[in-house]
Amino acid sequence: MKKYFFNEQLIKSYMHKNITCVFILFSLLCSTTVFSQNIAISGAVTDTSGEILIGVNVSVKGTTNGTITGIDGKYSLQQVPAQAVIVFSYVE
Hints:
Blueprint: H1 8-35, E1 38-44, E2 57-60, E3 66-68, E4 74-81, E5 86-89
Antiparallel strand pairs: 1-4, 2-3, 2-5
């Protein structure tokens, strides 16, 4: 009969540690996706009469993320936080 060096208690302890490590790793990976909830926004800028506005500065308040509207009045911003404030500025 062969003699085994591992007893049942040691194996259960080892499995419990592995399951705990996998659970912690999974939790950390899921939490990073929660904190990185950025969105892309786009649109067109017009005045009160519906005319397109060219060269309007569109930016995310408190950041350097911004763009300028094109000849068709359209803009697009990437990586915008979900609760961000968008600032539109235009000089005639």
